[in-house]
Design goal:
There is one protein chain. By secondary structure, this protein is α+β, with helices and mostly antiparallel strands. The chain is built from 20 helices and 24 strands. It folds into 2 domains: 284 residues, Periplasmic binding protein-like II (D-Maltodextrin-Binding Protein, domain 2, 3-Layer(aba) Sandwich); 192 residues, Dipeptide-binding Protein, Domain 3 (Dipeptide-binding Protein, domain 3, Roll). The strands form 7 sheets. A 6-stranded mixed sheet has the order 15-21-14-20-18-19. A 4-stranded mixed sheet has the order 2-11-10-9, with no helix packed on it. A 4-stranded antiparallel sheet has the order 5-6-8-7. The longest helix has 18 residues. It is globular.
Length: 613
Amino acid sequence: MFIHRLAAAVFCLALCAPAWAIERGKPVHGLAMYGQPKHGADFKHFDFVNPDAPKTGTLTRTTENDRTFDTFNIFAVKGAPARAAGLLHDTLMADNPDEISAMYGLIAETVEVAPDNTWVQFKLRSEAKFSDGSPITAADVVFSFDTLIEKGRPIYRLYYADVVRAEALNARTVKFSFKTGDNKELPIILGQVPVLSKTYWSTRDFTATTLEIPVGSGPYTIESFEPGRFVVAKRRADYWGRNLAVTRGFYNFERIRYEYFRDENVQFEAFKKGVYDVHRSTTARQWATAYDFPAFQEGKIRKYEFTDGTPMSAQTFIFNLRNPLFQDARVREAMNYAFDFESLNRTVFYNAYTRLRSYWQKSELEAVGLPSPAELKYLEPLRGKIPDRVFTTPLTQPVTDGQGNVRDNLRKAAALLREAGWVVEGGKLVKADTKQPFEFEFLLVQAGLDSVLLPTIQNWERLGIKATLRTIDPTQFFNRLEDRQFDMTSLIAPNALTPGNEQTDYWGTAAADNPASGNYGGVKDAALESLAQSIIRAQTRDEVIAATRAMDRVLTWNFYRMLTYSSQSERFAIWSKIQGPARTPLNGWGSAGSLIETTWWMDPAAADAKPGN
């Protein structure tokens, strides 16, 4: 499901409470996947926020890999959405960044789940209004759901696949009926439905890109913009939800400005001068060596390392299985032997990273040792359809002495390639029967990865493999990614502590042929389909853990992606005029620090200060 990052401190709360204890058969203020919601119906605000945070000033951020935008419609397939557009819309419920999988009413005043989990209905708040002043009605919710299913990004059809229909029971009550009662996560997933104005969108093409500022239900609107340069979101003084418990302590900046840069070096130089306020450091070299400038030395900029108990964001190399070169698992495993993490960690990463061996590393979902009896319940029916080593051998990554000596690993790789029908002739690896050379392009969007990839490419060359490195701009990159026009590339594999429907988007057979899905590599594996369904339909947290660990084993032993490295923490540098809550919420600060935008605030004394002060 779509959730923020979660932390280990909440595990006992989740595991000691009754499983799947969504209160059923009566209207309630919130839902929790495990146990009861942390906060009662009369709570005043979430624990971690500062409810008295000053509401002033402009937070300026950058957009990392995004270099421009051409639409404010973030729900359709077409276009490059503006970063600020996500602030324009509210959902039926709001998640608590300080809990595991819990949601509280936002547009919805109450939520009621059927005793047999075959429907959920939401009663809307009478005060909920769109930015044009019109009331938010059940008809708007039904329209939003139907439109997202029919015309929105394909992930909506995937997430809501078990919903039979949405219907307005009256002006303020909407009901969603399910195919079965098996998907216990579905009521919470439907709480995440963004609510759009039927009146506004009924007269517009929902599938088209648009720079018309849409009518929204959220706390901000667009004040000004210039594609390729900036977009400014301004907090709505008339925002209907500003005094709710779920929004108290949120949305503290009067404006949030997003600056677009075409060059990463220029971008960082701008941060040093105070052009923007929050910099997320994605390279160990920059974090270790680049903060020797005056603003940092004078204490105007602070470095933060935020660590939580969620799975590490896994930097992976993706094989496009649509390319025949990569369809044999032995080939993929052989290429993994050429990745010399120990040398890279010493010479490039400043010993800041950890080698990955799991998609859920650093969490209770990580597969460790041999399969437990609970995992075997899911794995045994798949015997013969999954690698035998899943049952007999814990996956361990190849290791080296850290001095660049990979000879032993390359010998193992060469043996695997020979088994797969590849031979070296004239220094080139070729298919024994067809003489096809092993040549491919590695597509990059982040130039900083060159130093990581070049040693690996050199090791592939020692095996006779020719890999060409190509770095392109983000727009081209993501277009080629959606068109599946790449051989190999590098992306982070996101996973959370509450896996669910998204696993079919990452690994499902149907998703492999869907250009807007997260199944970039084109994986078509019936065993993974089965395990994804086991996760979705699990009845207890223990079952979720066991099914996810089983999936982890099948993923890793098939080498569908090369698991490379990751950091134990998220690293941010922030100008000291931007201040945050006393503690990090259990979920962390969201994707790319999105919760910094919504729960931090500006020192009032600095609200009118010039950049760099």
